[in-house]
Amino acid sequence: xxxxxxxxxPHGNALHSQSMNWIYANGLDPFxxxxxxxxxxxxxxxxxxxxxxWRTIQMRTPPEEYGLTPKA
Length: 72
Hints:
The chain is α+β, with helices and mostly antiparallel strands. It is 14% helix and 28% strand.
């Protein structure tokens, strides 16, 4: 289960632009994450780029700064 699923914030959703800005603020291209799944472990986030391909980076900005709430 992802910590944040960007599919929860579809285009037109009140938090759509904030979710994209959060991904961009962490150094990733939000348009290159088609799966929308983001796992947060400590101060790192892992994004699913394609089927079977994940990328882990150090998180620069927590999602809460953009109004996003990680799942329990």
